[in-house]
Each structure stands twice: as structure tokens, then as C-alpha cells.
């Protein structure tokens, strides 16, 4: 069976900038799934060769990891999409593929972990190649595999929850209970697609944090533990929401940002604020603000007005106060900091949290 170790070591598909692309485990899993799927379809190992994405615009570098593979004597350029939490339309995917193609000088095949039927049909009508490992392939003149039904999501215990699953869990702990809510209602509340909520359900069930209860066509979640115990049970699978950090210069903090890091700790504990304020913003809001000229990125602290954390989920969704990010996400961003004073204040933060 194909694995990442079967990819040419001298030309291994490099996970460059993976911190700004999402979790390492998600991208490694997508790479592994692609290698295994192509081997299954072609009957032989299909090595993926690294492609330098350095000349791509920042938002494309943050979203895609690039590699080439030869299939039946023809070379294909694959762009692995890390942005699982979104479900763009066929037109959006086609535009991204066109932009990648124009930047790289050759056609790009977008690889994604899941694809809704109507999006798949739209991409086929537009003639845009794509691959959903384990499920669907549209590579005209090489491979076509268009099974209608999606495979069941993996149910093995995750090493860490995806950003979407973590966001749903923290919303349940900090904002209001989602136990007994239909998945559709949860999806609308946290602004994720129904397909993504189906994955969230499988992750939380696999981690033995909750069970899925079906009543006819309605599926709800029922958590096994009360809030404090649920937090402690879930903690091994929770990770920092910080996708990337930047030194920035701005006239004022951008819309959708909140004090984070030490700046947020100073509002919740006795810790003093740092001389450079820290803010958090959803990574999509960060890209939009950069494109709109809302602020500029600095190379270091000198000349910067703040340190900005780009998060994997929207910090404003979880907080209940206007002057700081939510305390549980804040804990996750600082729990590995070696500073003893910060660790002491983190204990205080958890103890004073209203469970």
C-alpha cells in the first residue's frame, strides 16, 4: 500500500509553511490518501515530486501544497487544498484552478478531501480536473472515477481534532450547549457546511466524547460528560488555534480581531500586558485585510504596532466579551509556553472559568 515513505525521498513533497496551511496531520493524511488512491487506480506506485510554491501569492501559498506525478506517461500538477472548513462552489474552485494555472504556467489539478455532488457536477461541466482521494477523480485523457456515494469518514481515534470539531466543542463548553441540536442547526450556528458537520460528528464520536443519536432523518449529538470533565477528557486532542503569527503595522485593529495572548491574559488575570499588544483574527479575515490594505506585515517587532495571530477558526464566534478571545482557546495558545508565570496564570484562568 502506498504511504508517504514511498514518495521519492530526494524529492519528497515538502510541507513548507504547513503551520499557515492548517494542521500537519490533516495535510499528511491528504498526501497519504492521494498516494494510496492513485496507486489503487493505476495499479502501481505514483511518486509525488515537490514543486516550489514560492512564486505564488501569499493566500495561494497558505492554502495549497504543490506536487507533480506522472500517470500513464503524462505529468500532472496537483494542488492539495488544506482549507477543509470551507465548501466553495464549482465556480470558486474553477477560479482557483485558473489562477494557479496562470501563476504556474501549466494546468493545476485541485485535490480536496471531500466534494459535494453538485460541486463535482459543476467542475465536470466546466472541464476542470480534480481528485477526491478514495472517492472521485476527473483527469480527462488519463483517469475518471466518479462514484456517486462518498466513502464513510474515517472513524479511528484522531490524534487531534480538526479546527471545525474543536470549534464546535468549545462553542458547546463556552457559549451554549449543542447537545440535542440537529447537525443542521449546529452547522448554521458555527458557520460550517453540513458536510463538515458530518466530519465533526465522526471525529467527536471517534474520540469518545459524544454519541450521535438518530431520530428518522435527524441526527443530534449527545455528549458523555459534564463541561469540566468534558474539557479534561478532550484536552489531549485539542491544539492551539494559531495558524500563523505576524508582526503588523496598522492605524487600528481590523474588524473581527480581538486581543489575544498576553494581552488577553492581562484582561482575565493579574498578568501585565506586553509592550506589543497581541490580537487574533480568523485566517480568512487576515487574508482579506491584507488584500484590502488594512495593515501591512513587518519583518520583525521594529516598526510594528502589534503581533497578530491568524486563527484556524473565528475568535469572535466563541468569546462572550468584547475585549478578549475566549479563555479556553487562549489557554490552548499558551499551554506550551515555558514561562512559569504564564503557566501559573493559566491555572488561574481555568480555575476561575465558570463551568
Describe the protein in words.
This protein is of the alpha+beta class. It has 13 helices and 14 strands. The protein has 3 domains: 143 residues; 75 residues, Orthogonal Bundle (Arc Repressor Mutant, subunit A); 109 residues, no CATH class.
Keywords:
single chain; 355 residues; alpha+beta; Arc Repressor Mutant, subunit A; seven-stranded mixed beta sheet; five-stranded mixed beta sheet
What is the fold's blueprint, element by element?
Blueprint: H1 24-42, E1 49-50, H2 58-63, E2 64-71, E3 74-81, H3 90-104, E4 108-111, H4 117-126, E5 130-132, E6 136-139, E7 143-146, H5 163-174, H6 183-190, H7 194-206, E8 210-215, E9 218-223, H8 227-234, E10 242-249, E11 258-259, H9 261-268, E12 278-282, H10 283-291, E13 296-298, E14 306-311, H11 315-318, H12 327-334, H13 340-352
Parallel strand pairs: 3-4, 4-5, 12-14
Antiparallel strand pairs: 1-2, 2-3, 5-6, 6-7, 8-9, 10-13, 10-14, 11-12
In a nutshell, what does this entry contain?
This protein has 355 residues and is of the alpha+beta class. The chain has 13 helices and 14 strands.
Strand content: 15-25%
Task: Give the C-alpha Rg.
Answer: 21 Å
Overall, the morphology is globular
Assign a percent range to the helix content: 25-40%
Low-confidence stretches: 1-23, 149-155
Ends apart, CA distance between termini: 47 Å
* Total of domains: 3
Listing every helix as H and every strand as E from the N terminus to the C terminus, the arrangement reads: HEHEEHEHEEEHHHEEHEEHEHEEHHH
Rounded average pLDDT:
84
Main sheet properties: 7 strands, mixed
| Number of helical stretches of at least 4 residues | 13
Category from helices, strands and their pairing: alpha+beta
Number of strands: 14
Q: How are strands sequenced across the largest beta sheet?
A: 1-2-3-4-5-6-7
Amino acid at each position: 500500500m502506498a504511504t508517504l515513505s514511498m514518495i521519492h525521498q530526494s524529492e519528497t513533497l515538502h510541507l513548507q509553511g504547513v503551520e499557515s496551511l492548517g494542521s500537519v496531520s490533516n495535510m499528511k493524511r491528504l498526501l497519504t490518501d492521494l498516494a494510496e488512491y492513485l496507486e489503487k487506480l493505476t495499479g502501481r506506485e505514483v511518486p509525488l515530486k515537490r514543486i516550489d510554491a514560492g512564486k505564488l501569492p501569499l493566500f495561494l501559498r497558505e492554502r495549497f501544497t504543490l506536487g507533480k506525478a506522472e500517470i500513464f506517461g503524462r505529468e500532472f500538477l496537483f494542488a492539495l487544498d488544506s482549507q477543509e472548513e470551507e465548501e466553495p462552489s464549482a465556480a470558486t474552485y474553477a477560479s482557483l484552478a485558473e489562477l494557479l494555472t496562470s501563476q504556474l504556467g501549466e494546468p493545476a489539478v485541485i485535490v480536496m478531501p471531500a466534494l459535494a455532488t453538485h460541486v463535482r457536477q459543476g467542475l465536470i461541466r466546466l472541464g476542470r480536473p480534480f481528485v477526491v482521494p478514495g472517492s472521485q477523480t476527473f483527469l480527462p485523457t488519463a483517469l475518471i472515477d466518479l462514484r456517486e456515494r462518498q466513502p464513510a469518514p474515517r472513524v479511528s481515534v484522531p490524534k487531534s481534532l480538526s479546527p471545525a470539531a474543536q470549534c464546535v466543542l468549545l462553542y458547546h463548553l463556552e457559549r451554549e450547549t449543542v447537545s440535542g441540536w440537529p447537525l443542521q442547526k449546529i452547522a448554521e450556528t458555527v458557520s460550517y457546511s453540513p458536510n463538515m458537520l458530518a466530519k465533526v460528528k465522526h471525529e467527536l464520536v471517534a474520540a469518545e466524547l459524544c454519541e450521535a443519536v438518530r431520530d428518522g432523518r435527524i441526527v443530534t449529538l449527545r455528549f458523555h460528560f459534564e463541561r469540566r470533565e468534558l474539557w479534561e477528557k478532550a484536552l489531549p486532542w485539542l491544539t492551539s488555534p494559531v495558524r500563523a503569527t505576524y508582526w503588523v503595522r496598522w492605524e487600528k485593529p481590523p474588524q473581527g480581531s480581538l486581543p489575544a495572548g498576553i494581552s488577553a491574559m492581562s484582561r482575565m488575570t493579574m498578568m501585565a500586558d506586553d509592550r506589543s499588544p497581541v490580537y487574533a483574527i480568523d485566517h480568512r479575515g487576515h487574508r482579506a485585510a491584507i488584500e484590502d490594505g488594512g495593515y501591512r506585515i513587518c519583518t520583525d517587532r521594529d516598526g510594528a504596532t502589534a503581533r497578530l495571530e491568524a486563527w484556524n477558526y473565528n475568535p469572535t464566534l466563541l468569546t462572550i466579551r468584547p475585549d478578549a478571545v475566549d479563555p479556553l482557546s487562549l489557554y490552548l495558545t499558551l499551554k506550551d509556553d515555558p514561562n512559569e508565570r504564564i503557566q501559573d496564570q493559566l491555572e488561574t484562568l481555568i480555575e476561575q472559568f465558570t463551568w
